[in-house]
């Protein structure tokens, strides 16, 4: 049992190293792009909306408001995107019996968690030092939102990892359906400002809960009473279980080219 776990750990570690070199290259600049891209996007949002409005919907800093909104969404989206392609980009390695589809998923998940954590720390540290000094940060809601975004993204990613393999049409439909999430997840606004009953419709979107929870950690006076952690957690767990079940049933077919 211990020997088998050690072997799995070595395989996943090797896959993580391979992911780093293939995705970011061997130079520091490759990894730095993972930070530059969200920074550029947040800066663009801040410049555009600061020209339109005098103050953001919450607080005084446009940069902080859009950073807390976009990064919470970005954690979910990049996790789902990367995990859903785990098997596809590692097809050649699956010809080795010791490497399983789950190994490729765990390797990508591990690398993505580390990358997302580094990116968030770097961006918020830069905002704190150069732009806006936070009065206080509450780690609990930030970490809870980070965990929920990762869990939801991973669950949807695992499920799509199998479904994308069997249906290219489903993959295209999923991408089309997912695009509006960027506009209805509370990145640009607070769900509190949406009138009844549209706010209730909006809150069926689990990412809106994650974004609001993430923001609570940076705005001590902000109380989003509509946040339902149990709803997001149950949905995330359902996707993880569904994805792992599909992988257990169709794992052998997923290996096929």
TrEMBL record:
Residues 29-250 form the ABC transmembrane type-2 domain. It is a multi-pass membrane protein. One of its GO terms (biological process) is lipopolysaccharide transport. Keywords: Cell inner membrane, Cell membrane, Membrane, Transmembrane, Transmembrane helix, Transport. InterPro entries: ABC2_TM, ABC2_TM_bact-type, ABC_2_transport. GO terms for cellular component: ATP-binding cassette (ABC) transporter complex. Pfam families: ABC2_membrane. The chain crosses the membrane at residues 31-52, 58-76, 113-131, 143-167, 173-190, 231-252. It is found in: Cell inner membrane. It comes from the Bacteria. GO terms for molecular function: ABC-type transporter activity. Its main location: membrane. Belongs to the ABC-2 integral membrane protein family. This is Transport permease protein. It comes from Stappia sediminis.
């Amino acid at each position: 049992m211990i020997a088998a776990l050690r072997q799995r750990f070595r395989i996943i570690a090797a896959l993580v190293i391979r992911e780093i070199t293939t995705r970011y290259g061997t130079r520091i600049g490759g990894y730095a792009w993972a930070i530059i891209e969200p920074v550029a996007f947040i800066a663009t949002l801040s410049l555009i909306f600061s020209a339109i409005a005098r103050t953001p919907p919450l607080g005084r800093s446009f940069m902080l408001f859009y950073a807390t909104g976009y990064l919470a969404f970005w954690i979910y989206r990049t996790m789902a995107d990367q995990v859903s392609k785990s098997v596809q980009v590692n097809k050649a390695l699956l010809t080795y019996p010791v490497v399983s589809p789950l190994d490729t998923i765990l390797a990508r998940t591990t690398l993505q968690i580390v990358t997302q954590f580094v990116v968030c720390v770097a961006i918020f540290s830069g905002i704190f030092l150069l732009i806006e000094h936070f009065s206080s940060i509450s780690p609990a809601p930030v970490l809870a939102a980070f965990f929920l975004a990762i869990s939801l993204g991973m669950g949807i990613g695992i499920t799509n990892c199998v479904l994308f393999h069997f249906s290219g049409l489903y993959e295209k439909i999923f991408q089309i359906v997912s695009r509006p999430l960027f506009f209805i997840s509370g990145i640009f606004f607070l769900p509190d400002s949406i009138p009844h009953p549209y706010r209730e419709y909006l809150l069926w979107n689990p990412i809106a809960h994650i974004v609001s929870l993430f923001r609570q950690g940076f705005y001590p006076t902000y109380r989003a009473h509509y946040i339902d952690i149990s709803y997001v957690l149950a949905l995330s767990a359902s996707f993880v279980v569904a994805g792992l079940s599909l992988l257990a049933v169709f794992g052998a077919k997923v290996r096929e080219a």
